[in-house]
Amino acid sequence: MGVYPFHYFRMIKINRILLVIAALFINGCVSLSVGEKLSKRIINKPNDANKAETSVYALDSSTMMAINHILPTKMGQFEMMNKTIIFPAFKRNDIEVYNSLQFLTPEGQNEDGTYTFVYLANPYLKDKNYDILDVLISEYGRTRAEEYFDIWLSCFAYEQEVLSFK
After folding, report:
1. Which class does domain 63-165 fall in?
2. What distances in angstroms separate CA 165 from CA 1, 64, 158, one per listed residue?
3. Domain parsing of the chain, residue ranges
4. CA distances from 42 to 46, 50, 97, 111, 116 (A)
């Protein structure tokens, strides 16, 4: 058996260990860097799925809701006015406003006997005109529009309630 200096083997082991540690360190840094760039690319990718995942709010739109409490004896008249006079006037005057509007009818009577109808503007177009009297005047002229508006107003049990949402 020959004499082998033990420090020689220790030196080889230490060099191998240092080499392995250096390789792992470099590999870890590179993969983190590549992974970070890839994740940024995926996160910044403009698609609808990412938009939906990042926010539960509508970013640039708002919604308007007008709640109408209608007398039970005027329910049919109110519904007819909206379907045959008011909404067709909106459609002919401004198709964008018409397309943003919905007219919701109640399933049943309220506890106080009234019926709740809802106008829903989603999205609410802030630079557009949603005023019913203005639209009726532009469609039917002042005299007839005021007659229609008086009939419409006579249907209410309470004042119309308007709410805005983001």
Report:
1. alpha beta
2. 90, 6, 22
3. 6-54, 63-165
4. 9, 9, 37, 53, 47
The answer to whether 152 and 146 have CB atoms below 8 angstroms apart is no
- CB–CB of 119/65 below 8 Å? yes
Specify the residue for token string 């809802």. 118
Cβ atoms of residues 81 and 151 within 8 Å: yes
Tokens of 29: 């840094």
Tens of pLDDT along 71-86? 999 999 999 999 999 9
CA-based R_g, the chain, Å: 35
Does residue 123 have a cis bond before it (omega within 30 degrees)? yes
Residue 52: per-residue pLDDT: 45
Residue 84 to residue 115: CA distance in whole angstroms: 19
Cα dihedral angle (83, 86, 87, 90), rounded to 10 degrees? Answer: 170
pTM of structure: 0.62
